[in-house]
């Protein structure tokens, strides 16, 4: 076998090792480039901070005139209105420029630094009462005074000291062009040090990660061999089993959600039409309602039978049978058509009041409208939370109460409630929002209240409870804000 063929066999037999080596080299190049980029950005940050400090010191140097400086030389001058005026200038400048301290120093005849005024108004702040101290304590101020240039803290290799501040000093010239004082500004070095420390740590992590990657890779591939195919097969079997389990779980969840929806819809119709029938004195109307109840009951029975058939299928006990069915009648069972009711039963009169009903299922809208018709209340319907927010935004003073479903497409009731409350519109905080949902467990009610709703009504609807809520929020005891 030729050396070339041997090399090919080695490469083909260790494909993973070769690919890993290439990947490790690429990671090394990326790590080095990233480290260089981090250092470059750190240098750029240092330059930005240095320029900000210098600009701040130069601006501070122009906040006071040489003549004003000449009037502030001894502690007694602090009683002058000028001293308070200069301090207020510094306070405003510090606030607007977001610096921590801004101040003036003078080099007195004894060659010592004498503080003049600072934006700090606390006890012990540096001012004309502060004893002068040696120049060595403020080398930057000395340099600015002697050389007449603006100087800053050296940021390269900066270590937090002097109270964790970065400083800059700029000369204040008198009319003769001599340095009469120096203006200083301080900012916290916390952000700078944190950024530099993060950059250093990130560079170190990149290098350590690279070393670990190389070592771990070669250690791992040292045991790479015949079991690779077996391992890959196990992985494929595991993935297939997981996908199958996820698919089954997803189908079950969708089935339960569908069953819940399909059961709630006819139950709501049965209870709603029962109440309408009890409230109506018209025999024909009662018969109509009973027919609708019968249709809804038959549909509900079909839903339950379907659910049982699904269980039989899952357990392997399902038996097929050939039967005729009326397709048109089946489709009619799915859609419930509610005629307007003219029930004359005694009811609360909410004439002139307006509610917004947020409900995505049309049949549920019709049930609520039919149940509330005797109250003479006006009802607008929204099919989802987004429509509810839009209708309220367009006319925030129009509605007295909002009945809010929870589970809806586009936007659910929780989000819609939060957006209404946060809109800042008139009555956004005050309008009663009542959850009208089939989620009735205590944690569901708490979730509704946490979203900003005032109350909760469970489905299937109890009309007496609905009327009680209307009396509560539309009565005289609940003032309209």
Structure write-up:
This protein is α/β, with parallel strands linked by helices and 481 residues long. It contains 14 helices and ten strands. It has helices at residues 3-13, 15-61, 66-70, 81-97, 139-147, 190-221, 227-279, 283-315, 327-334, 362-372, 385-394, 413-421, 442-450, 463-474, and strands at 101-107, 113-118, 151-152, 165-173, 179-188, 354-358, 378-382, 401-404, 433-437, 455-458. The strands form two sheets. It has a five-stranded antiparallel sheet with strand order 2-1-5-4-3, sandwiched between helices. A five-stranded parallel sheet has the order 7-6-8-9-10, with helices on both faces. Helix 11 (385-394) runs parallel beside helix 12.
List keywords for this structure.
single chain, about 475 residues, alpha/beta, five-stranded antiparallel β-sheet, five-stranded parallel β-sheet, 10 strands
């Amino acid at each position: 076998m030729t050396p070339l063929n041997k090399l090919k066999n080695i490469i083909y037999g260790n494909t993973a090792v070769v690919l890993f080596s290439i990947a490790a080299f690429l990671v090394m190049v990326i790590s080095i480039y990233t480290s260089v980029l981090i250092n470059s950005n750190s240098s750029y940050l240092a330059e930005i901070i240095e320029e900000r400090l210098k600009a701040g010191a130069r601006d501070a140097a122009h906040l006071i005139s040489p003549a004003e400086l000449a009037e502030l030389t001894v502690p007694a001058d602090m009683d002058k209105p000028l001293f308070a005026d200069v301090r207020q200038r510094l306070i405003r400048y510090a606030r607007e420029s977001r610096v921590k301290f801004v101040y003036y120093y003078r080099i007195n005849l004894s060659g010592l630094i004498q503080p003049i005024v600072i934006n700090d108004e606390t006890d012990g702040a540096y001012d004309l009462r502060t004893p002068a101290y040696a120049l060595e304590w403020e080398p930057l101020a000395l340099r600015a005074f002697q050389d007449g240039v603006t100087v800053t803290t050296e940021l390269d290799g900066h270590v937090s000291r002097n109270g964790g501040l970065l400083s800059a000093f700029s000369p204040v010239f008198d009319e003769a062009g001599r340095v009469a004082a120096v203006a200083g500004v301080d900012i916290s070095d916390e952000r700078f040090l944190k950024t530099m420390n993060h950059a250093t740590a990130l560079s170190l992590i990149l290098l350590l990660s690279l070393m670990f990657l190389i070592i771990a890779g070669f250690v791992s591939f040292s045991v790479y061999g015949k079991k690779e195919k077996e391992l890959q097969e196990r992985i494929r079997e595991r993935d297939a089993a997981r996908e199958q389990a996820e698919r089954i779980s997803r189908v079950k969840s969708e089935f339960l959600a569908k069953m819940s929806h399909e059961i709630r819809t006819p139950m709501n119709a049965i209870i709603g039409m029962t109440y309408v029938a009890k409230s109506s004195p018209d025999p024909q109307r009662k018969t109509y309602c009973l027919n609708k109840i019968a249709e809804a009951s038959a549909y509900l029975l079909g839903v339950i039978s379907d659910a049982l058939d699904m269980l039989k299928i899952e357990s392997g006990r399902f038996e097929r049978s050939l039967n005729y069915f009326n397709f048109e009648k089946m489709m009619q069972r799915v859609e419930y058509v509610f005629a307007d009711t003219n029930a004359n039963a005694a009811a609360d009169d909410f004439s002139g009041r307006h509610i917004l009903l947020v409900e995505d299922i049309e049949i549920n809208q019709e049930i609520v409208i039919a149940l509330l018709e005797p109250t003479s209340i006006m009802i607008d319907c929204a099919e989802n939370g987004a429509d509810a927010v839009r209708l309220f935004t367009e006319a925030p003073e129009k509605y007295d109460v909002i009945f809010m479903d929870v589970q809806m497409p586009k936007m659910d009731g929780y989000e819609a409630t939060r957006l209404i409350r946060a809109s800042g519109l008139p009555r956004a905080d005050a309008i009663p929002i009542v959850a009208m949902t089939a989620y009735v467990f205590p944690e569901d009610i708490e979730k509704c209240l946490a979203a900003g709703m005032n109350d909760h009504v469970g489905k299937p609807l109890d009309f007496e409870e609905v009327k009680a809520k209307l009396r509560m929020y539309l009565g005289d005891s609940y003032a309209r804000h």
